[in-house]
Write a structure and sequence with these properties.
- With 250 residues, this protein is α/β, with parallel strands linked by helices.
- It folds into two domains: 120 residues, D-Maltodextrin-Binding Protein, domain 2; 96 residues, 3-Layer(aba) Sandwich (D-Maltodextrin-Binding Protein, domain 2), CATH 3.40.190.
- 40% of the residues lie in helices and 27% in strands.
- The chain contains ten helices and eleven strands.
- The strands form two sheets. Strands 1, 4, 5, 6, 7, 8, 9, 10 and 11 form a nine-stranded mixed sheet that branches. Strands 2-3 form a two-stranded antiparallel sheet.
- β2 and β3 form a beta hairpin.
- α2 packs antiparallel against α10.
- The termini are far apart.
Length: 250
């Protein structure tokens, strides 16, 4: 009986270890799902986009099963730190302020910030020309911070919870222009709603590095970096890039 009890204990311990190992093989990626073409939902409600494809490719390289957890943009970093998900792959700009709250991987793409406005409007992007204009941007983004730091006292800045709501107001004529990530706006300008609008001026920020965020001190960061290097080396990254853009965003 004593030997049998020891066997049962050993078997139970093995089951616990196996369960823990299985649990460790599952990760949750956090995504806003309102920022096409990088992340949004398709007609069936599934999360799709460049960020999702990159996240899936990284999970495949790490040999882990991943699921998606969506989060509103305003609370997406607090949600990561509250362990609602394990890593955040949602077009997050790497900034010194955010580095206080999370750790970032190596950049997985580079963006630029640029204005858009109606095609038939003379829209110069210097401070004097924009004085008194209403410019839309998404709240808690690099674009919003840049506008407040550089044009805050001269421009009427209107902040939005999502990029899509900013577009709605631009089409309706409630704002004069938008400052946002160039590659997000590039996609929208090709749409039916965006066909009467265009980029204005040169990018105001020419190298916005985008990273994947993890909680402070999480060793998952190094695993993600290794997987990122691997998908760039084996052509997986280029295949995903080419699915969305006719040019490299790396």
């Amino acid at each position: 009986m004593h030997t049998y009890k020891k066997f049962l204990l050993a078997a139970a311990a093995t089951l616990v270890m196996s369960a823990n190992a299985m649990a460790a093989e599952k990760l949750r990626m956090g995504i806003e799902a309102a920022y096409p073409p990088f992340n949004n939902k398709d007609a069936s409600g599934q999360v799709v986009g460049f960020d999702k494809d990159i996240g899936d490719a990284l999970c495949a390289k790490m040999k882990v099963e991943c699921s998606v957890v969506t989060s509103d943009w305003d609370g997406i970093i607090p949600a990561l730190n509250a362990k609602k998900f394990d890593f955040l792959v949602s077009s997050l700009s790497i900034t010194d302020e955010r580095k206080q709250a999370v750790d970032f991987t190596d950049p997985y793409y580079s963006n630029k910030l640029q204005f858009i406005a109606p095609k038939n409007v003379d829209f110069k992007t210097d401070k004097a020309s924009l004085k008194g204009k209403v410019i839309g941007t998404q709240r808690a983004t690099l674009a919003g911070t840049w506008l407040e730091d550089n044009f805050g006292s001269d421009v009427d800045i209107k902040l939005y919870d999502t990029q899509e709501n900013a577009y709605l107001d631009l089409v309706a004529g409630r704002i004069d222009g938008i400052l946002a990530d160039k590659y997000v706006q590039y996609e929208w300008l090709k749409s039916k709603d965006g066909m009467n609008f265009e980029f204005k001026g040169e990018p105001v920020v020419d190298s916005d590095k985008i990273g994947i965020a993890v909680r402070k001190g999480d060793p998952l960061r190094e695993k993600l970096n290794k997987a990122l290097a691997e998908i760039k080396a084996d052509g997986t990254y280029k295949k995903i890039n080419d699915k969305y853009f006719p040019f490299s965003i790396e």
